[in-house]
Amino acid sequence: MSLFSKKTEAYFSEIHFDLDEDENLHSILSQTRIDKRTAENMEGSMKITYKNGVAAELFWIEDGDYMEQEIRFKEKVISFRDYPINNYRSLVTSRKGIHQLGGIAPVGFKVPNGKTNSPYIYLGFLNNQDETLQWLPFEKLHLIFPIYGGFDVIYLDYTDPLAPRLLGEVGVEGHGPPEYGITEKSIIEFESTPMSLNKLKNDYLLTGKQYGNTGAPIWVQGNFIPVCPVSGNEMRFLLQLNPPGAIKVSKTDVNFKDDEYPEYTEVLNFGNGVFYLFMEPDHKTLAYFIQYT
């Protein structure tokens, strides 16, 4: 019997009601395909049932409850493609964790050249000794980002993993919040917190234990897959961070000039937004950006 004559199910971390045949949508579905167990433990996810090679049924899953939705399309409903199932993992604190949020950069690490009017904040590292991150091209990926700069997207070249290079300064120079007492030379460090990547449990979300996730993105301000400025290839989702406010500042020389944003120098906070990281491993390029609800 042909595959397309059978009923096929697939689960996704993103919800789309418009399922027109479209290469961009196929890219999004490819990056967000997850397993059934993960989908049922998320706050919101999607199931598509394919019949005869095309989408036939759409279900919105909320906390494990399935609600059938009407499929909308203008020309041709999306066809079945057997995308690999992404290994969605929750980033949670663990004393024996091999990943880290916060801390200080290793000796010899150099931040990119290029004025940002906001310091590059060291966010920690991911370790490719984790079985779900073995595709990373080096053992430790050290994460930095000018959190307070208000950027759209920043692309960094990690050919030298201890000296990332800024790829283009359009939209970088001149940004930053100097009116709040932060400059490119400001010091803000966060407590070193060991982390693990575990299979998603419903209570991680209910109790705020999940600091972020790998495997599949959940965009909060529109679907966006960066394109590598070196190769022209779509980049692969790596990490999403939305810390629950428990990682505290360990050292800073910043004193805000008003009382409106004191939490930014008290805990790790992305302006109440969500931090995303995509990578093109062959060319060792990364894209960093923040989305706001």
Element layout with pairings:
Blueprint: E1 7-12, H1 23-32, E2 33-34, H2 36-41, E3 45-51, E4 54-62, E5 65-69, E6 89-93, E7 99-103, E8 121-127, E9 140-145, E10 154-157, E11 165-166, E12 188-198, H3 202-206, E13 212-214, E14 236-241, E15 249-252, E16 273-280, E17 285-292
Antiparallel strand pairs: 1-2, 1-3, 3-4, 4-5, 6-12, 6-13, 7-8, 7-12, 8-9, 10-11, 10-17, 12-15, 13-14, 14-16, 16-17
Describe the structure in your own words.
- The chain has 293 residues and is mainly beta.
- The chain folds into 2 domains: 3-69, no CATH class; 89-292, no CATH class.
- It is 7% helix and 33% strand.
- Strands 6, 7, 8, 9, 10, 11, 12, 13, 14, 15, 16 and 17 form a 12-stranded antiparallel beta sheet that branches. Strands 2-1-3-4-5 form a 5-stranded antiparallel beta sheet.
- Strand 10 (154-157) and strand 11 (165-166) form a beta hairpin.
- The model has no long low-confidence stretch (mean pLDDT 89).
Structural class: mainly beta
Number of domains: 2
Rounded average pLDDT: 89
- Name the beta content range: 25-35%
Sum up the overall morphology in one term. Answer: globular
Computed Rg? 20 Å
Distance from N terminus to C terminus (CA atoms, Å) equals 46 Å
Determine the fraction of residues in helical runs and give it as a percent range: under 10%
